[in-house]
Structures are given as structure tokens and as C-alpha cells.
Amino acid sequence: MTVDDATPEGERALSSASEPAASQSASARPGTAAYRFARVRDRVHGLLPTWVRRIVPATAIGFAALSSFTYAVDLVLLSLGHTVLDLPYPVAVTIGYVVAFSLAFVLNRWLNFQSDGHVGKQTGRYVLSVVANYAFFILLLASTLEALGVHFLVARLVAGACEAIFMYTMMKLFVFRQRRYR
Predict the structure, then answer these.
(1) Is the Cβ–Cβ distance between 122 and 110 less than 8 Å?
(2) Which of 1, 137, 153, 162 is most buried per CB count within 10 Å?
(3) Beta-carbon contacts of residue 33 (< 8 Å; ≥ 6 apart)
């Protein structure tokens, strides 16, 4: 663990050596939304017990926060599409999914991972990850559960838990991977 001494007095932020604190990030200049997001993310990460901080990176906290928001968007669109507009379940799920995952890419790239990598390549890697995620967790898992009589929102919640682990791993290691040598 490193201590960021550049923070105001009494506000020392802990961060892992592999993930610089918000004030040390090249792409997060003070006063920007990305900087403020990273500061809050790093503070929340600093509140975790030491043994948890060693296992859970700060970006996982940011991913959880952003994913909670985009998942809520997904569920609202699913509910509106399936119950209000009377769309077939797979269509309503797809609409919510596409909107939420597009929003998740933009927010995670900008605020959480603060990536300055080639957006085209990252988008391609993200699309591959999302297609795999969609096939395994939406079409296969959520639709199977719904077809077996599980309430459509419960089916989506179960699939969402699986998606969260898969997508964070893909974003961290594949989509926004950090170059070790420049």
C-alpha cells in the first residue's frame, strides 16, 4: 500500500501500488469528474479492512458503483418494456441490456479506469466481452430461469450477479488492460 501525501491534511487516501490514487492519475486532473470519482472511490476502498483491500482493487469499488447505476437503468428499461409496452421478454431484456452496457462502457472508461488507450480497440474488446456475456448470462441463464417459471426480474437479478463478476474481470484484464512497459 502507498499513502498519497498530496491530499489535504487529514485526508490521506490509501491506494494499491498497481492503481494510483486519483491525485496521481495522469488522466484525472484535479477538479474533473474523473478526479472526484476516483477520490471517492479510493476513500471508500480505504475504509475496507486491510485484508480486503489487498484482495479487492479500488477499481472494483468504482465498477460496483457504476454498475449499480447502469443495472438500475437496465431494470427500469426491462420493466417498462415488458410490463408497460408489453414487449416480449427477450426484446425487453435486449433493449435494457444494450443501453446499460453502452453506458457502462463510457462511464467505466472515463471515470473508473480513466483509460487513454485506443478507443476503437477498447470498444472492439468490450463488444466481444459483451457478446459473450449476453450469450451466457442473458440468453442462456436469464431466459432459462424465466422459462422455468422464475419471475423475470428475479431471473435478471441472478444473471446480473454472474455478469458483474465476468464483466469486471474482462474490463480489468482485457478491455482496459494496462500496458506494463511503454
Answers:
(1) no
(2) 137
(3) 110, 111
